[in-house]
From TrEMBL, chains A, B:
Keyword tags: FAD, Flavoprotein, Oxidoreductase
Pfam families tied to this protein: FAD-oxidase_C, FAD_binding_4
Keyword Flavoprotein: yes
Alphabetized PANTHER family for the sequence: GLYCOLATE OXIDASE SUBUNIT GLCD (PTHR42934:SF2)
Organism: Deinococcus budaensis
Name recorded for this polypeptide: Glycolate oxidase
C-alpha cells in the first residue's frame, strides 16, 4: 500500500510538469508513455491532444499526453508515468458529461477509456461485468437476449460510457422509479493515484460507493459489475399540457399521492417545448406553459393502464389537457421530443450552461417561476426541463460567447443555484459537480462537511493528482476569497 | 472543522481513562456527564453499566459510563466529555446485533440511543425521518396508514433500531427483491469523534453511504431520512422440502432463471428445521435435508400466482415436494417457523457463534456440504439457514461455554469463513463484521484495500476513539502476528 497521509503532498494546484528530462526535448511524458505502451496507445500530437480538453459543456486545459488504455495494466502504467512526471491524471469516457468533470483543469495526462469495451453478461447471476469504456446502451443490448436490461438511462446513453456514468453517478428519466447508476453497481475495480489496483464489492466501509460519483477525483474506475433486471412487459405513455408550471407540479403531486409510481415523469417549459417544436415539428403544444411526459410500466397490463388513468385524472384535476399515445410509434415520437432537447437548444445559441438542481417537489412551481423571472431580467435565453418526479430540474442558460459575456452567464447561473439552495435543494441531481458547480459548493455544503470531504480526498489521493479542480473548492485560497 | 490528520492520534488501544480528577473519586467521566446532562440521562452504577457490555452474541468491556441521550445535543455533549476524558465511544440501539458491533472492546462511554425515538412520516415525499432509537417495525407501522411501508426486515425488526440497522447495513428476507437498509437511506445526520454534527444527503462523495455499515467506527448516526414504498397488494407463500441441499439450490437457480423474482427465498437445513420443530411443533418435514420457504408478491394477483407456480415447478423439477400456504394464517405460521430459528437454537445450547457468509449461489450446495462436514468432524452442533436467493448463509455453531472450549468454537468459525472465501464469497451479508469476523478480515480483504480502509478510518476518526477494535484488524501488531 503506497498512498498514505504520511506521504509528502504536492502543493494544491502545482500540477505543472517537471522540468524536461534530457533526450526528450518536446514532451517527456508522451515520450515515456510511447516507450512503455507503444505508439498505438498514446496521442502526443498537439492537434490530437486538443480534442481531449473538453466535455459536452466545458473547455479545459490541453493535456500533455493522451493514453487510450486497452486494459487495466495499461492504466497502471500510464498512472505511474504521470506520477513520475508529477502531473495530474484525468479520466474520460465519451465526454458527454454536462458539468466539466472530464475537462482537465490543468495540463496533464488524460486517460480516454473508449477502447476498454469488454462486456460479459451472466444471466444466472443477473449481472454484467463491463470495462469502463463500454457504451451504456450496449449493456442492455447484450442483456436483452437473456430477458434482462440495465435500467439507468441518462439522455446520452447511446454514446456515454459506463465509466463516465459511474464517475458522475448518472441519472436519467427512469431513475424516478428505478434508481440511479450507483443503485445498479455491485462492485468495481479502480486504480489509485499510485497505480495500485483495487477490487471492491459493496461491503462495510463502502469505498465503491464513495468512488461512484466522485468524478475520478479519488480513483480511476476501470471495470464494474452491474446489476441487471427483467424489463417491464408493458409501457403506456401520455402527454399533458398545462397553462403554467404550478398546475403541472400539482398534477404530479396528486398523481404520486394516488399511489401511482410512473416510470418516467418529464417536464418541459414553454421555451423548451418551442425549441423542440422549431427543430422537429412534432405537433407539440406551443402555447402550453408546461408540458408533462409520463410513462407507466409493469408486468400487468391492467395495472399499467390503471396507473396511466390515475395520472391522467390527476392532470385533468390540476387543469391540464391530456393526450394518450395510442401506439408504440406515437409514444416513441413523444419521447424523441424529450431526447432532442439538447440538439434543439444548440440551434438557439452555440453554448449553454446546464444546471442540474434538485428541489423538494412542493417548491417546484415557485422555483421554476423565480428562475423564469431571473432569466427574463438577465436578457439571456433560459429554458427549463427535467425529471419532475424527483424535483430534478435542468435550467439551461443559452449563450453565444461572441455576444454574451461569460460573467453575465456565470452570475445568472449562480443566482439560479441560490434559488435552489434557498428552497432546500441541492446543486446536482445527476450531472455531477465538476468545474461547473464547484464555485457554488461553499453555499451548498456546510464548512464542517466540506472539511470532511477534503479529509476523505486526502486519504485516498494525498498528493492531489486525480482530476484536480473538480467538485471540492480549494481549501485555503477560496476560504479567504469567499468569507 | 476539527478532525484532521494533523491531530495527534492516541496510541491504538490506549482507551483507558485518564487519572481521576480531584473531587470525583469514583468515576470522573460519569460525574462530569451527570453534571452536564443531569442524572436522568446517565447510568454510572456498576450493576447498570454491566447491562451495556454485550449485544445478542458477544460480551465486551463494562463501560465507564452510559448515556441515554434524548437528542443530538446530548450526543454532542457526551462525545465531547469522552474526548476530554480520552476514552472511546460506542453507540448501541437495541443491541440485537449478531457480530459484536455494539459490545465495547475497551472500557469507555456507551451511548444507548433507545430514548431517541422521534419519528415523522412525510407521505407526499414518501419519506420518514427517524431518530436513531426508533424501532425498525415502528417505521412501517407509522407509514402504513398512508399506504406506505419501510421494506428492510431484519429478523429482529420488532426490537432492533434504525440506528443499529444503519450501523450494520442490515438485510433481511425481503432484501433479495427489495434491497438492504442502505438502499432506503436518503440522508442522515451524524456526530463525529469531536462532537461536530453533519447533515448529509446521498451526493457526490457519498459520506452517508460510507457511514452506513461502518458500525459506529466513523461517526454516530443520530437521525436518518428513510425512503418509503407502497406495499405489494398480494403475497403468496409456499414451502418446499428436498432430500438434500443441492436439490434446493438447484430449485432456486431454476426458479430465478424463469424470470421469477420472489420477495423472499429462505433456506433451513435439517438440523435447523428439527430445532424449530422441537420448539414449535408446526408440522415441518423433519426428515427433509433442506427446506425452502418462498414468498412471491406484487400488485397483480395473476402475476403473483404465476410466479409462485414457476417457483413450484422449479422445486418439483429439482426433486422437491411442495406445500402451498392456502390461507394467510398458514403463511404466517410458516414464516413464524423461520423467525423462531434464534430462540429455537437457544434451547439447544446457551450460546452460538453466528456466521453471515455470502457465496455465489452456484457454490451453495458444495459450501453447505463442506460446512456440514466440518461441523460433524468438530463434534459441535452446527445448523445452517439463510437467504438462499442472495447466497447469504448463516452457519451457526451452538455451544455451552461450560462444556465447549472457546478455542474449538473459534477454530471452527475460522474454518467456515475460509470455506466461504475459497468459494469466492465474503464474510458478511447483513450482520456486519464487528469483533466476530474481524480476525478473518485479513483473509477476506487484500492488503492494498485494507490499507485504504484504514486511511478512510484515520481521515474521519484520527484519534481512533470511535468503537475501536471493530471491523478493521489492527494495522501493525496483527500484520506481524498473521504474516
Amino acid at each position: 500500500m503506497s498512498f498514505s497521509p504520511r506521504k509528502t503532498a504536492l502543493t494544491p494546484g502545482s500540477g505543472a510538469p517537471k522540468p524536461r528530462s534530457k533526450g526528450t526535448p518536446d514532451n517527456p511524458l508522451a515520450a515515456e508513455l510511447t516507450r512503455s505502451l507503444g505508439p498505438r496507445k498514446v496521442l502526443s500530437n498537439p492537434s490530437e491532444r486538443r480534442n481531449y480538453r473538453y466535455d459536452a459543456i466545458q473547455f479545459g486545459a490541453t493535456p500533455l499526453a493522451v493514453v487510450l488504455p486497452e486494459n487495466t495494466a495499461d492504466v497502471v502504467t500510464a498512472v505511474r508515468a504521470a506520477r513520475a512526471a508529477g502531473v495530474p491524471v484525468v479520466g474520460r469516457g465519451a465526454a458527454s458529461g454536462l458539468s466539466g468533470g472530464a475537462a482537465p483543469a490543468l495540463p496533464g495526462l488524460v486517460l480516454s477509456f473508449t477502447r476498454m469495451t469488454r462486456l460479459e453478461v451472466f444471466p444466472q447471476r443477473r449481472e454484467a461485468r463491463a470495462q469502463a469504456g463500454v457504451v451504456t446502451l450496449s449493456v442492455t443490448e447484450a442483456a436483452r437476449p437473456h430477458g434482462l436490461i440495465y435500467p439507468p438511462d441518462p439522455a446520452s446513453f447511446r454514446t456515454s460510457t459506463i465509466g463516465g456514468n459511474l464517475g458522475e453517478n448518472a441519472g436519467g428519466p427512469l431513475c424516478f422509479k428505478y434508481g440511479v447508476t450507483g443503485d445498479y453497481v455491485k462492485g468495481l475495480q479502480f486504480v489509485d493515484a499510485d497505480g495500485d489496483v483495487y477490487e471492491l464489492t459493496r461491503d462495510a466501509y463502502d469505498l465503491a460507493g464513495l468512488l461512484i460519483g466522485s468524478e475520478g477525483t479519488l480513483g480511476l474506475i476501470t471495470e464494474a459489475t452491474l446489476r441487471l433486471t427483467p424489463p417491464p412487459k408493458y409501457t403506456r405513455t401520455l402527454l399533458a399540457s398545462f397553462a403554467e408550471v404550478g398546475e403541472c407540479a400539482e398534477a404530479v403531486s396528486r398523481a404520486i399521492a394516488t399511489g401511482a409510481v410512473p416510470a418516467k415523469l418529464e417536464f418541459m417549459d414553454a421555451a423548451c417545448t418551442n425549441a423542440v417544436e422549431d427543430y422537429l415539428a412534432l405537433g407539440l403544444p406551443r402555447d402550453a406553459g408546461a408540458v408533462l411526459l409520463v410513462d407507466t410500466d409493469g408486468d400487468d397490463l391492467e395495472t399499467v393502464e390503471e396507473e396511466r388513468a390515475l395520472v391522467e385524472a390527476a392532470c385533468r384535476e390540476a387543469g391540464g389537457t391530456v393526450r394518450r399515445a395510442a401506439t408504440d410509434a406515437e409514444a416513441a415520437a413523444l419521447w424523441q421530443a424529450r431526447r432532442s432537447v439538447s440538439p434543439a437548444l444548440g440551434r438557439i445559441r452555440p453554448q449553454r450552461m446546464n444546471e442540474d438542481i434538485v428541489v423538494p417537489r412542493s417548491a417546484l412551481p415557485e422555483v421554476v417561476r423565480e428562475i423564469r423571472a431571473l432569466g427574463d431580467a438577465s436578457g439571456l435565453p433560459v429554458v427549463q426541463f427535467g425529471h419532475i418526479g424527483d424535483g430534478n430540474l435542468h435550467p439551461n442558460i443559452l449563450f453565444d460567447p461572441r455576444r454574451e459575456s461569460s460573467e453575465a452567464v456565470h452570475d445568472l447561473a449562480h443566482r439560479i443555484a441560490l434559488v435552489a439552495i434557498r428552497h432546500g435543494g441541492v446543486l446536482s441531481g445527476e450531472h455531477g459537480i465538476g468545474t461547473m458547480k464547484r464555485p457554488f459548493m461553499r453555499e451548498a455544503v456546510d464548512p464542517v462537511t466540506l472539511a470532511a470531504l477534503w479529509d476523505v480526498k486526502r486519504a485516498l489521493d494525498p498528493a492531489g493528482r486525480l482530476n484536480p479542480g473538480k467538485i471540492l473548492p480549494d481549501e485555503d485560497v477560496e476560504a479567504h476569497a469567499h468569507p
